[in-house]
Design goal:
Helix 2 packs parallel to helix 3. By secondary structure, the chain is α/β, with parallel strands linked by helices. The protein has a five-stranded parallel β-sheet.
Length: 125
């Protein structure tokens, strides 16, 4: 069964690279959102296996969006993988407290990013 992934990132290039990798190499279904507000709406109305969430967006920061996801009964059960370009020690502690399923650095390799998601989610055949 194909996995359903929601990619929430305000950078179009990042969304495109991640989406291409997940769809082309893994055969997974993806939807994208360019803002926290749009991502929250999709998470509440869709059925996703994981959300890939950028930590730095203009309309909502990662804590606001993560808390909003946790407040919704349907969205709260979806694991979240944080996407980040940098992780400072204080940020790592804050993310750990939020409880994401994992973290991906934004130096993505188109060919392997889908494997990183599969490893974090333990989706091995």
């Amino acid at each position: 069964m194909s996995k359903r992934i929601l990619i929430v990132d305000d950078e179009e290039d990042i969304r495109d690279v991640v989406q291409a990798s997940l769809e082309e190499f893994a055969g997974w279904y993806t939807e994208t959102a360019s803002s926290g507000t749009e991502g929250l709406h999709l998470a509440k109305t869709g059925s996703f296996d994981v959300i890939l969430l950028d930590i730095s967006m203009p309309d909502m920061d990662e804590v606001q969006l993560f808390e909003a996801l946790q407040a919704d009964p349907q969205a709260r059960i979806i694991p979240v993988i944080v996407l980040t370009a940098k992780v400072l020690p204080k940020d790592r502690q804050r993310f750990t407290e939020l409880g994401p399923a994992g973290m991906l650095m934004k130096s993505f390799d188109l060919v392997t990013v889908w494997r990183q998601v599969a490893d974090i989610m333990n989706w091995h055949s």
